[in-house]
Amino acid sequence: MESKAVARKKQEVEQLMEKLKKAVSFYIVDYTGLDANAMNSMRGKFRSDNYEYFVIKNSILQRASERLGFEEINEVLAGPNSISISYDDPIGPARIINDHYKEPELPTMQLCYIEGKWFSSDEARKLANLPSRDVLAGQMLNVLISPISGFVNLLQTHLSGLLRVVDGMCKKITEERPPVGEEQTKAPEEPEVEKEEEKVTLKEPEETIEEEVTGGEKTEEQSKDDDKEGDRKGEVSTEDQQEENKEEK
Fold it and tell me: Do 18 and 126 sit in the same domain of this protein?
């Protein structure tokens, strides 16, 4: 039957394994030489930024790392160690450790695991000097927005030039157009010309009609003259007939 100490140790190993599986990064820190005030200050900073930080026994850390396949941890299992775990920002704990890294160069960051890769203490400190995720996101956004801003400025420049050209054309058309007063005085003259043309065009059909009437039908005077001419011809023919009858007798 297992003792309570062994059962408790197994439970601690299981709990540490679950935390390391979920973590995006964790840091093994040697806190040797760090006084109580500095230790409490660093622990409070980790907690306020939602990072876990606690002292860990090397035996628990060794068993958990072996079961997870983290053999690299075995190289730093010497002296008192603590561990900081992040589930969100992988570089956040390194910045806090750097802020407390003062003479005599304490605490010592021994090893760190960031998103599937292992980094030494020096490499981790270099990563800690990088901007935070929010700052990097802002910088990336500025990089993406810069070409768009340049395009908008270029478009505004071309639009301004186009508006100047259109404005110049409008002014030119306005200058070439006659004043409004002159247009109003000349306007009545145009209908008179049109009326005269209409009169001329209307007279031509009337003359044509009169010619057709006079050419196709005789007037009363012409009819009377024709009747008189017929009577004269009749009288002449009667006289000639009488003379012919006398000669025959």
Answer: yes
User: At CA 154, angle to CA 150 and CA 159, rounded to 5?
Assistant: 145
For residues 66-86, one letter each, b for 16 or more C-beta atoms within 10 angstroms of the residue's C-beta and e for the rest, the string is: eeeebeebeebeeeebbbbbb
pTM of the model: 0.54
Residues 171-229 pLDDT 10s: 777 776 655 555 555 555 555 545 454 454 544 454 544 444 444 444 555 556 666 66
* Single residue among 163, 179, 195 that ends a domain in this structure: 179
Q: At what angle do helices 58-68 and 4-22 cross, to 10 degrees?
A: 50
Gap between the Cα atoms of 72 and 107, Å rounded: 20
- 146's tokens: 């810069």
Same domain, yes or no: 17 and 126: yes
